[in-house]
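Internal tracking record. Fields below are filled automatically when a chain is submitted to the structure queue. Please do not edit lines marked as system-generated. If the sequence contains nonstandard residues, flag them in the REMARKS field before resubmitting.
Queue: standard
Priority: normal
Entity type: single polypeptide chain
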Amino acid sequence: MSCLIQSLKRDKCVFLTYEGEMPPIEIVAFRYGATGLLSALHWNRLLMDITGLRTIPPDLELFRLFSGLSPDLSPDARVALVIREEQAKQARLVQNIARKEGVFLACFSDVEQASTWMKGIRPHERSQARPANSMRQPANQKG
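SYSTEM-GENERATED OUTPUT FOLLOWS
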């Protein structure tokens, strides 16, 4: 089990990545830590990568883990959630609920796409964007 919370000053973003086996309570605790860091730094961008979790949370669990973000974030926050392709259905539910709660959350199966969206860069501007060297793409992802 491991979790990394990393502040990326260049992008004014907090990057949160989970790996291995983690009980849901720890996943949520680290999420609170990341949103607390965002608040302390007065930033509004959060990228959460759950592709490294060994066990894929079931539909309801994924919803519980990543819903309820709105009280922890500023109203102008952007949240990118990187998921495995097989989590797409659950992730859409999480995304829809989060947006109803006022959180601008989008789900991706690719770290680079999530990073680009989170920075607010349009697809045709990608080549001009600085590479996200500090963000690794998980080995199990295509691309």
